[in-house]
Design a protein that fits this description.
- There is one protein chain.
- This protein has 400 residues and is of the alpha/beta class.
- The protein folds into two domains: 85 residues, Ribosomal Protein S8, Chain: A, domain 1; 279 residues, Dihydropteroate synthase-like (TIM Barrel), CATH 3.20.20.
- The chain is built from 15 helices and 13 strands.
- The strands form three sheets. Strands 11-10-9-8-7-6-13-12 form an eight-stranded parallel sheet.
- α4 packs across α5, α6 crosses α7 and α7 runs parallel beside α8.
Length: 400
């Protein structure tokens, strides 16, 4: 039977095998197969015109300001539309273009094409976190006041029971936090946070020697003592903004470090947060925070990024972040999303309370898996693990 069908890009390699194309040609066709949209900010108007003409000559295109062509504006953001093959050719053509600010553009394009996200991260103690699939980070809050009561565990028996259940249900990482950062919360004293976190980390490590443990703290001394007790990862909601000494601890231990975006502090972050461009502003924050961390000795290959769902964001901001996750992935760092049972899910479900937000959380997890998020931080390990397992099985069909 003769017919024509549109193929799914995920199945291009499998279909090339069915066509019996030469395997050596597969990477060539893959580089030609997907249009990649790249936005470059602040290009001079003449430079924007050059980029558009060069992309057109290569078979691609570029979107520029309507007044860039006659230079009635001094600069323009530029959206490039091309395949990887187009961009490789553009970089080569621009090697001699040291005018109109295009040297910077060429370097950024070259860096984008050459950078690779880490395939795995090793903890200070040799435990490996591999990003072959979406990982589940289970939440244990050793606090009396976290927003979801089901996550609160205050004595060691409860903590170990929760950890045991998470391990049995397929958790890849256990995240321990001793300081509530819910909207409007006040921080407890450092001594209290230490008294909550360190015994919990020590107990989990002794009972479960192989599971990676993350410590959810922005305090340097808490992170230090938790790492010494056997924790593997520092999960900092402040992106190294609240305690200047934390970056030294991360560098000293060579620990994996989660840098989260937050606007304000937990006490005031939800008082009408405003963004002109939420994705751009978070990306700029990440770049600045990564530069700061790396300058202090943090291994850039061990940085994980978290856009901070619910931390200084309105309902529409959280939805836009999730809709545009691919744009954060362009930074080529492992991406963590912590959306479990949060307020925006309740709002989407008609103001459902935290206890009734499981299905909404699972929907977000499914979205994250399909968009290639590396870690989801959740309260309900079993349910989220099952969603991930099914979707990863489907995704694997395109890799076979």
């Amino acid at each position: 039977m003769k017919m024509l069908i549109e193929l799914s890009l995920d199945f291009l390699r499998a279909e090339m095998e069915r066509v019996k194309a030469h395997p050596a040609s597969f990477p060539i066709f893959e580089r030609k197969s997907r249009i990649i949209l790249l936005k470059i900010y602040g290009v001079s108007a003449p430079g924007a015109n050059v980029l558009k003409q060069e992309m057109l000559s290569l078979g691609g295109d570029a979107v520029v300001h309507k007044n860039a062509v006659d230079c009635k504006v001094s600069e323009s953001d530029v959206i490039l539309l091309g395949t990887r093959k187009h961009y490789e050719a553009l970089v080569k053509k621009m090697e001699a273009a040291d005018y109109f600010g295009l040297t910077r553009v060429r370097k950024e394009l070259k860096d984008f094409l050459e950078r690779r996200k880490a395939e795995y991260i090793d903890s200070p103690w040799g435990r490996r976190i591999s990003f072959e699939r979406t990982l589940v980070m289970g939440i244990i809050n050793v606090t009396p006041d976290s927003f979801y009561t089901g996550s609160r565990k205050q004595d060691l028996k409860e903590i170990l029971e929760a950890a045991s259940h998470m391990v049995e249900c397929g958790a890849d990482i256990i995240d321990v936090g001793g300081l509530s950062t819910r909207p409007g919360s006040e921080p407890v004293a450092e001594e209290e946070e230490l008294a909550r976190v360190v015994p919990a980390v020590k107990a989990i490590r002794e009972s479960f020697p192989r599971i990676p443990i993350s410590v959810d703290t922005y305090r340097a001394e808490v992170a230090r003592k938790a790492l010494q007790a056997g924790a593997d990862i520092i999960n900092d909601i402040s992106g190294l903004m609240f305690d200047e000494n934390l970056v030294r601890v991360a560098a000293e231990f060579r620990a994996p470090l989660v840098l989260m975006h937050i606007k304000g502090t937990p006490k005031d972050m939800q008082k009408d947060p405003h963004y002109d461009d939420v994705v751009r502003e978070i990306a700029e924050y990440f770049l600045e925070r990564m530069e700061f961390a790396e300058a202090a000795g943090v291994d850039p290959a061990k940085i994980i990024l978290d856009p901070g769902i619910g931390f200084g964001k309105q309902y529409r901001h959280n939805l836009e972040i999730l809709a545009r996750l691919e744009e954060f992935k362009s930074l080529k760092k492992p991406l963590l999303i912590g959306a479990s049972r949060k307020t925006f899910i309740g709002k989407a479900l008609g103001d459902a309370p935290p206890e009734e937000r499981l299905e909404g959380t699972l929907a977000v997890t499914a979205l994250c898996v399909m968009k290639g998020v590396d870690i989801v931080r959740v309260h309900d390990v079993k349910e989220n693990r099952r969603v991930i397992d099914v979707l990863e099985a489907v995704k694997c069909q395109g890799r076979s």
